[in-house]
Write a structure and sequence with these properties.
Radius of gyration: 20 Å
Number of domains: 2
Bound molecules: ligand DP6
Helix content: 25-40%
Number of strands: 16
CATH class of the largest domain: Alpha Beta
CATH architecture of the largest domain: 2-Layer Sandwich
Distance between the termini: 11 Å
Strand content: 25-35%
Shape: globular
CATH topology of the largest domain: Ribosomal Protein S5, domain 2
Largest sheet: 8 strands, mixed
């Protein structure tokens, strides 16, 4: 990238959303996960952010920034940015010397069950890293994406995995001494079997109303959770299993682990000291229907859920036509406004440049 030589400049980055297969749930300390996780990045669902910076005449005490989401000032997100800037200031000490203007937009519609905090925070972190390079504060070179992942994690844990395409892991783990994970940044998984490269994700919309419980509040309920220790060992076990399955192209193990993780996430929420249920009756109907369909048709498909009621129906490319017909004929009537979105594993990773 060309360096901006002035006290002002503008950069943009586009980062993909991701969906976790082994779930990050619970924090050991600030933005350090209790367990390793792995997700895959989506191909079409992305956030694009541009950042304009301008040197302030008198560097102030407070951060000076505006955040616009789809051209409107967004105060909820501004609060998140404030916390984020406070967390990254030890790395980026120049932040108070500049006025920052963020303009962000998603390629996917609002509230459709696609987590936007991961792609937003990843694109914001990338913009700030590019700015730091442009004003000559850091020289990240080959470590650019690793540093951006570490910065993104401080905004939202799952965001650190949106720094790469394909399957991406985060958190300490070891498997056959081949992939050593870090709690500080995500690592792209290099051993993906060709079978999984065509993984499709049909996002089935059950309820688009805003979340009752934020992920951040959900994570904190793991601190005194009676099943914390067993959850950590289960996640490590599932991590090892899924890495092997992804490497060998073993669909049956993949399916088993992915569904086990989704249902565990929701069981953990239901059994925490402040219990909450995020699934809706339709979520359960869809799960039943998917299992029946798979038994009858032999299609390679399975489901996962985030911390919400909407389902992600995953399937391999060979079964695409069969699964699309199944959604149209058997599932649409249970979806909010019959709405679903077709996406797939994306390999491009983030894209950006100076404006
Ligand atoms: C259920 O990354 O949104 O989607 O770090 O507090 O911002 P914070 O949490 P967040 O948690 C995501 C949890 C999850 C599982 C996952 O993506 O691994």
């Amino acid at each position: 990238m060309k360096k901006a030589e002035y006290d002002s400049g503008q950069v943009y980055w586009e980062a993909p959303s991701n969906i976790a297969l082994v779930k990050y749930w619970g924090k050991k300390s600030t933005q350090i996960p209790c367990n390793p996780s792995i997700s895959f990045s989506l191909s079409s669902s992305k956030t694009r952010t541009s950042l304009k910076w301008r040197k302030r005449d008198h560097g102030g005490k407070d951060f000076s920034f505006d955040f616009f989401f789809e051209d409107k000032k967004n105060q909820t997100f501004e609060k998140k940015i404030q916390t984020f800037l406070e967390r990254i200031e030890p790395n980026f000490s120049f932040l108070r010397d500049y006025h920052l203007e963020f303009y962000s937009s998603n390629t996917f519609p609002h509230s459709v069950g696609i987590a936007s905090s991961a792609s937003s925070m990843a694109s914001i972190a990338l913009c700030l890293c590019s700015m730091a390079e442009a004003i000559g504060e850091v020289n990240l070179e080959k470590k650019f994406f690793q540093e951006a992942s570490s910065i993104a994690r401080l905004g939202s844990g799952s965001a650190c995995r949106s720094l790469y395409g394909g399957a991406v892991s985060w958190g300490e783990h070891s498997w056959c001494q081949r992939e050593l994970g870090s709690d500080l940044y995500a690592t792209p998984f290099s051993g993906l079997h060709p079978k999984f490269k065509g993984l499709l994700d049909f996002i089935l919309l059950v309820d688009s109303s805003p979340k009752k419980v934020s992920s951040t509040a959900g994570h904190s309920l793991m601190n005194d959770h009676p099943f914390l220790d067993s959850r950590i060992s289960q996640a490590n076990h599932n991590m090892e299993g899924i890495l092997k399955a992804l490497d060998k192209g073993d669909w049956m193990s993949f399916q088993h682990i992915v569904e086990n993780e989704a249902l565990t996430l929701h069981s953990l929420m239901m059994s925490s000291s402040t219990p909450f249920i995020l699934m809706k009756p339709q979520s359960l109907i869809l799960i039943e229907k998917i299992r029946e369909f798979r038994k009858k048709s032999g299609a390679k498909c399975c489901f996962t859920l985030d911390a919400g009621p909407n389902l992600h129906l995953l399937c391999l490319q060979d079964d695409e036509a069969l699964v699309r017909r199944f959604i149209k004929e058997d599932l649409e009537e249970f979806l909010e406004n019959k709405k679903w979105i077709a996406d797939r594993m994306g390999f491009d990773g983030p894209k950006g440049g100076y404006l």
